[in-house]
Design a protein that fits this description.
Helix content is 67%, strand content 7%. The chain is globular.
Amino acid sequence: MRGLHADTGYLLYRLGLRSGRLFNASLQESGLRLRHYALLRFLATSEGAPQRELSTSLGYDPSAIVGLVDDLERLGFAERRPSPDDRRSRIVVLTEAGRVFLRDTDKAGSRVAGELLRPLDTEERDVLHALLLRVAESGLG
């Protein structure tokens, strides 16, 4: 196993899987998953977005976005509204109930990050975050 742990890409992959499992476990009671959270988090930073923009920004298949938005709409966390720029188009917006859920879920996310990063002190966590952000910004668009 040590050979695999020498590969940074593999470590990132494994930590991503573990992080996703921990986060999904924290969301289990709500019936939502990390993909829903990511969509809510994106919507919280915008005034709404067309589904195709959500697909591009989050890197999800367009058909997956439809199902995720349907789930969030059913729970009252997001809704589709007419676009102010194009009457033929609809945008997805975060509702107030979605904002409340997101605030509560952010606390769970902090607990998950704390568990995952337990071996690191506060300064090391900040450095790791800054480095991952730099890598992500250069490659995720």
